Amino acid sequence: MSAGRMRTHEPELQRVVVIGGGTGLSVILRGLKQEHLHITAIVTVADDGGSSGRLREEMDMLPPGDIRNVLTALADTEPLMERLMQHRFTTGTGLAGHNLGNLLIAAMNEITGDFVTAVKKLSRVLAVRGDVLPASNQSILLKAEMEDGSIVVGESQIPLAGKPIKRVFLDPADAVPLNDALTAISEADIIVLGPGSLYTSIVPNLLVHGLFEEIQRASAQKLYICNVMTQPGETDGYTAADHVEAMYRHVSVPFLDTIMVNSAEIPPHIQEKYAEKGATPVDSDIERLKQMGLSIIAEPMVTFGDGYLRHDATSVSKQVVALMNRRKE
């Protein structure tokens, strides 16, 4: 028998699709890449602030910031390379404020002539463990209708308005997703949303025409990892159930199977630090979640190492894998 026939094939990797943006998504991906999984990250492209906003406007490209964070989180590189990707220039005419990773994506975009191709090429350079896809290859502007009827334009401006948000919406409204993103969703064993800014990182992905419909059709388990703290200007006073209801309101139908909430007590000195900025712990609101028909994973899932709250990437990832394995049984 030939050597080729004698080889044993490893079982196919379970497929995880993680949807969102911002630092919360990157934290979770750092944990998931340590597991034996195939990861696809579908990332919002509505950012219009800082270095991303400048490159978006000056070079007529998709904003690279959230993509950069995800590439860095999934990269199999030395710590020095990660520092380089995240380095922000503080001096230099026209250079100050820009992030080196953003500039690398912009350069690759100019070389290849296509943002998605640029991300794929850079993924190979960084030995990224998984696939990183923008939610759409079209330039999207995020807008919000506030409870008082006023309209706020721009992802970076919405939390600064200081008003309760009624809904967010995309311009153009008919932005379409990548075919690769739809395929990843259809083949997923689990679809994970969050953690991250509810209205500016998570919901915008659900509004890309056709992407939510594919999520709804998918046989995969649908998991939402709820934020631990409220976000000033977005989710002031929100409970976990309020986060879920806001998503349902935007897509007009319940679609989640499971929610993960933090059960650990937040130390008073940490709460005080967040209270100075108007943030408070998110009440898990377990009874309302049960009434909504959701399975609930309530576990300690935060770290306090640097004086700030972070999701414990390892613990959360273990819970995600355990949830998939229970589904298989």
TrEMBL record:
Q: Which family does it belong to?
A: Belongs to the gluconeogenesis factor family.
Q: Which HAMAP family match?
A: Gluconeogen_factor
**Which protein are we looking at?**
Gluconeogenesis factor
Q: Localized where?
A: Cytoplasm
Molecular-function GO terms, alphabetical: LPPG:FO 2-phospho-L-lactate transferase activity
- Which segments does the entry list as coiled coil? none
Q: Which UniProt keywords apply?
A: Cytoplasm
Say what the protein does: Required for morphogenesis under gluconeogenic growth conditions.
Pfam families under this entry? CofD
Give the GO biological process terms.
regulation of cell shape
Q: Any keyword Cytoplasm? A: yes
- Any GO CC annotation of this UniProt entry: cytoplasm
